[in-house]
């Protein structure tokens, strides 16, 4: 068979490629396709940042656990008898078997199915039968994974050393999460959309609404910003501004406004700034109380809302975790890399903890808008990936509505590029780039 | 596709391997299996030659389009309102999405589904909403693909620079295509046979009839040359020669003979010389009016035929496009590489433009012979590929009936080998190697 | 995921990695995952050892053949008219096609389906039509594969040169095979379990019973050693020793004991020493006459057994072939590599040649225990492989019940490591390492 031949010159070519990227344009082909670039992404991005792994309502009772899988790793999130939650790499310290195989369950201890090595919920090895004298059980606990719980959201960091500081982001987004009652909310549904495309193509799709009008008619039915974005005419702008003023007055009266957080792009450069720690609120179309069919409520009011203010909240933490929340439900979007050209889009729908399925909400109505919209995005992203594979693909220029993509790309290039670039950008942008 | 990074030591090992090939033998294993060799094939063969992409009858009306996919590229073939046909790489100049996704359709303009960038049929960018000042729409048209229409056949060339000269081949084959009325014919059926094998194993299968007797009983029922080839005895040769004389007399009387074109192998070295621009006519078995069950007609007479002359026409243009045509129908065979060990055999059946499906022809009867024969070939080619993967595969010697394979291999090795070899062969063979 | 390591500088990194392995621990990640290591395994292990390919009862009549596939090779095992069995690489000497495609059948000659090249059962080329003058048919026979038949078991060796000496192993295991009448036995069933894991993870699973108690309740119902192994308490040990004494007395009286053969591990280090030429007998649980539901017979007595002695026989030949045999049936386990992370476990059940399916045995009852147990093992091995892919996988220490794994690993490392290591181990261990 063919001998596997070696790429010449180590990884320097990636540094060189990154330095050659043209600002304000999509990235070169290799950054979306190459397996070595993906390894770099895994190491520098997914191996070194806080990633949303789930919500505490998924494991309410002692012994409840869920597995979270990302970029080849499986993480156990388990609640102990004192109610504390722990995160461990799902790798037995004996011969490396995955300890738990079911995606979720309840277990008094974490018992490896292979040879019965038994770990406590805190990861310590409790029993390992017939080991020779001198075996040090204390040195063979499950490897701990960094975990941080933010208003009920479980974030993990795969880094071997210290995880990046998340305090500034947490401080910025917490008021938003509290407005929506995320800490006490309950997972109503979760869906995984496998996408045959590099994770960056999926994130880029999420970070702009330039495509909303051509691609998402259902979404545009409830989102007023689609008017403004899709057209840009003075008339559309005026319509949007009028609606925004009307909504601000209403939300202010209800006490549901919050100071914007994060990157301070001028308002007319796009409303979606949900990136690397950012949050804002904005109006839905007049008459739409939530993001659902005909704008009609699909679940009981959540969090601090006492009546419908007709707004939505957009929020981002890190490059791959975003929230879009309405008065009666919240959605979290995760972009989970699988391989250079495979990713998952994972959506979690949250509702008020008291809401009863089939009584207070109908899952089909709850999930309709973001199911149909994400199916559209999956198709679009895969067509994008197919075109990027062509010999004739060339990075193209951003529109006025894609400034967030440029921000995302700069941030990405700084992280995977040579150290000099990383330092340069950090200096120039001050506190903007979290987690570097 | 991604610029696959260069294996250390460059591609010299491929050059070395090519120079080591033994004339009159099948190729070394790596030339059928190796991914780097396939990249070289893509660059030197499929990236630099004219390839049949379809027939104009597939897009009869203004706005009609078809996509043609080969070796990782997607090409749009579209007819404009003036009736002109254009070929473009199916890659949006914005962020690289494939512009069109359906394999065929009708569109007033070519509108990218992602962000609505709108191209005219000639590829020029007509609309790109909300681009910043200074954006040059004229610099962002679809990348044009070289296109040449020969008697209704649409050929594309993926080369970035000038496409190879095809004039000599076109001049040679045009009388044959006219005899069969190809320019006005209509596509009756199209079938794709995915084959798990390198494209060269599929072409080699096509280029010899040594396997016809062991493998293709249905085919041998109508093809007199199978007798001669499968046996080679003086009696069989005499039978063939008698039949050939009889047929020549008939065809001459009907005015359906044509001067042979292309490589001038002696007649007794095989009748299939359909290669790199070659064409000839030959008889079917006595009593067979066409290549179909029991030799009975399956469609109305085509082109210049006014009655059945009982002949067939074989014709080749470039390494991967062949025609076998009879009095009442024509088939085009394309060998389309997908990956080092994956190819498609694509067959297109053409009939007279006035022939009505279900009335004048039955698609099942029309396609029967070449469907059953190609299924057999798919199985054979895949068994060949399986054997070539063995550590014990060794190039074996050609029979007397495989001289066209030797010609194909020489031509292939000249194209993918070192430049010196290419020059040497060109000089020696004069005008034989088209498209180098 | 595995840090994909750059195989810079040829294969030296494999030698270095092997020298860095820690004794008494599982192997480093790359040895279970890396494609270059798998190539080395193919060359040094599967390309250079005797591998069980089948049983003569699969091809009882003249012209009967079976194909055996391993590590990319297909081997024809065929019986000629004199009753002799031949093994050939299934690669036509013409253009490399696999000659035979059906997994088993009967053929007067071995006729390549592609061009009809015809080989006798001894591999000599009998007919190759229309080859040019000077073609040497004698130089184009099928490539012979080394074959050795041991008590009806057909072993092949893929080595190009001399196959390793197997005489010492054959001498050691023959009495065991004769006790069970393997030479005359008949294949009753064969099952293939594809496993997504490196072959070494599958063999390691086979070579220890540390996992039997957590993973195999059905197995533990009939196997007394599971008690001892799973617990290790003085009470369990005493129970086992008492049962062993009782059984030895019975077996001695029946004449069904045999001297142990192979590596002489102390008894308390585990009963499974079936490795690289090793064999022993041991008792089942009291009251269990065979390894089946409730210990009840599932087929007529085999071989030299005249009544049930309630024992089992474990036997190994080379790294990938093992037998577990009972009084009424025998099973052979083969570990067949497919790719770095894909293997097959192949199980063959043998019964007395006179036993009639549906009358003397019920295939479902016959195969029940090892079917259910192997499904469990497949799941376990795949979970092991999944954990080994994690960045946090680290080789862990062996228990007292995994000494055979350490022996297997030492043997493996000696074979795939630098020559110095191979010599060192051979010298130290004397005749222990067969087939080096």
Can you put this structure into words, describing what you see?
Three copies of one chain form a homotrimer. Chain A is α+β, with helices and mostly antiparallel strands and 436 residues long. Chain A has twelve helices and 16 strands. In chain A, helix 5 (199-206) crosses helix 10 (363-388). Chain A is globular, with a radius of gyration of 23 Å. The interface between B and C is medium-sized, with 31 and 31 residues.
Q: What oligomeric state do the depicted chains represent?
A: homotrimer
Name the overall outline of chain A. globular
Number of strands of chain A: 16
User: Residue ranges of chain A: pLDDT <50 for 5 or more in a row?
Assistant: 1-9, 264-275, 426-436
The secondary structure category of chain A is alpha+beta
Strand order of the largest sheet of chain A: 11-16-15-14-13-12
Mean pLDDT of chain A: 88
Please write the string of helix (H) and strand (E) elements of chain A.
Answer: HHHEEEEEEEEEEHEHHHHHEEEEEHHH
Tell me the greatest interface: A-B, 43 and 45 residues
Q: Biggest β-sheet of chain A, characterized? A: 6 strands, antiparallel
What is the number of helices of chain A? 12
How far the N terminus sits from the C terminus of chain A, by CA atoms, comes to 43 Å
Q: Which range does the strand content of chain A fall in?
A: 15-25%
Helicity of chain A, in percent?
25-40%
Backbone CA Rg of chain A: 23 Å
